[in-house]
Amino acid sequence: MKKLLKSKRRGSAIPLVLVAVMILLAMGVGLLDLGMKGRIYSIRTASDIAARCAADAGLTMALFEMNEKLKVKPWNDSSLPEATNESLPYCDAVFSYTVTGNPGTGYTIESVGASGNAERKVVCVLKPQGPFEFAVFAEDGAELKNSALVDWYNFGADDEILKFGTNSIVSGAFSFKNSSTINGDVVVGVDGNPDVVIDDFGATITGETRALRERNVLPPIAVPQWLESLPSSGTIQNDTTVTNSAKYSGINLNNSKTLLIDGDVTLYVTGEIILGNSAEVQIDNDASLILYLGGDFEGKNSSTINNLTQETKKLQIYCLDSCENMLFKKSSDFYGVIYAPNADVIMYNSANIYGAIVARDFEQKNSGTFNYDASLRDASVNDEAVRFVVTNWHEE
């Protein structure tokens, strides 16, 4: 009897062991399933990330190729960038992209990235952006003397506010004297402190003072090959009428002499431009002037560049790196744009300026008025120093 009872007590442990085994088996299967699902999820997530990176890489490549095409003038969009199944380095993802559109409707990039079974598509809209997004952009800094005014016109209700900027973060790079006014934002270099960069001696800034999110790149100017290859027509000194594009070694207008631009003219002056006292460069009512300047510019007392059209795009001055100084000693109105990223530009007393200026350093003397033409933001693919930027981006 005792042996029978003892045998039953030993056998009663078997069901408990079986229950424990079943529980452990269920837990093991559950953990295995959880691990498998986690593994599958991580693979899918990694593939999604790789596909998205590939799509972004395709977009970046397409944007780069579009900007490379802009370097060839005139613009030709008969063949736009495209690629199929390009490999993304260091992974098994690939990307494909196409660019469609025209200058009238704008251009759109569609880029598709694929990795494994994952596929991601990004789409963006491009627009050409010229060098005159700022009223004044001075690479190293600027100074506004007493009562100088920077204002704007030709803007819409939705336009971004006027900007006065620099890439510098150096203390005192901007110096704004008593009663000077900037009707807009003042922007300093990336990671700069506006309170350090701006020396405010009683100026009025109606907008914000802030730092750039990224450096404003000022590309050097290259003279068009067809213009550079022309023979030099010498130096202009006396009354002259120019009706066709040409190349000159210099312009040294004697006192009270006039250079008349009659037609749509592009000039390349390899040396200096000096306007004697009361000398004048006059752009006729139905004319325009694009000027590439290799040397310095000096306009002496009462001299002027008289743009009779009063349209700022009808007078465009582009300075090569060898141009280091531009001095305007005058009291008459100036309608035009100046792109001189390696030059100091100084506007003397009582000058009224309409347009935009890019310079290394900029100085506006007492009582000068600077009026930014906001329509200069409407750039063309054939403009100088233009580049494509992304204005609209979404993922499909």
Describe the secondary-structure layout.
Layout: H1 2-11, H2 13-69, E1 82-87, E2 94-102, E3 106-115, E4 118-129, E5 136-144, E6 149-153, E7 163-165, E8 174-176, E9 181-182, E10 185-188, H3 194-197, E11 198-200, E12 204-205, E13 209-211, H4 225-228, E14 235-236, E15 240-242, E16 246-248, E17 250-253, E18 258-261, E19 264-269, E20 273-275, E21 280-283, E22 288-293, E23 297-299, E24 304-307, E25 315-319, E26 325-328, E27 334-347, E28 352-364, E29 369-373, E30 387-395
Parallel strand pairs: 5-7, 5-8, 5-28, 6-9, 6-29, 7-10, 8-11, 9-12, 10-13, 14-17, 15-18, 16-19, 17-20, 18-21, 19-22, 20-23, 21-24, 22-25, 23-26, 25-27, 26-27, 27-28, 28-29
Antiparallel strand pairs: 1-2, 2-3, 3-4, 4-30
Q: Quick one: biggest sheet?
A: 21 strands, parallel
Percent strand: 35-45%
> Could you say which structural class the secondary elements and strand pairing correspond to?
alpha/beta
Please give the oligomerization state of what you see: single chain
Helix content: 10-25%
CA distance, first residue to last residue: 81 Å
